[in-house]
Amino acid sequence: MKRTPAPAGSRDSSAPRGAAMKAVGGTRHHLLLRLVVLVLVLALWQFTAQAHGSVYFPPPGRIAHRAYELWFSGPVRRAFLTEAAVGDVLPSLGRMAAGFGIAAVAGIGAGVVVGRSRRAYALCNPVLQFARAVPPPALVPVFVVVLDFGTPMQVASIAFSAVWPVLVNTAEGARNTDPLRLDVAAVLRLNPVERLRFLILPSALPRIFAGLRLSLSLSLILMVFSELLPGTANGIGYTLTDAQSRSDLLTVWAALLLLGVLGYLLNAALLAVEKRFLGRGRSTA
To answer: What's the CATH number where 150 sits?
Structure first.
């Protein structure tokens, strides 16, 4: 008996479905491997810490329990956040968000202007490379002298240090816009705003997100460093300094764990936004 060949339409529709299922399977396999590695590292840490019994190297179970007691054992009406979380973690995140937001807006705006002008790029590039090479913590004392201790100094130091990766990457992305697309825009008589919206920014987005990810890491580092200075009354950095002065090493480890988790979650959120704008294939991750 002859088999009737499947319609061409059904074959075409099954191919994307199979590719999607294969991609989902690959993602699940990758996540499973990450989970296995994490469990193995934690198990090794737990076993080593219990075997040595050193107060300087507590097991991860005790560290996680201490972090829970300090910050996440509050009432339901406050989303399980304790007084310490409201008084220390939220102010730190607010300073970091303010500094990172200022750096992102200023860096993207200035980067587009510098990148689209050959003369401006040639004049500003040495200054940009010099500013990017200066270690960010070295600038904090300058802001202490100018602004004194307090939240304005902390936000300014975060913003000034985090702006350079965004600015440089945006300038490079805007500078490398396809000339053929610019010629087509000239033929279509697009105005400058339309060129920026439909040509320059989409072309520069991969470099912009690469700069934003670098700036996000710098913002987290500068947030903690600025809170380690004298005169700080709250924040995760203040919690570290206070716990160190009291020789409370378990709280020190808990604060380090919190910083690591915050950094991972913030980076994952930015990656999700990047994939939303660029698609999985063009992500810079």
So the answer is: 1.10.3720.10
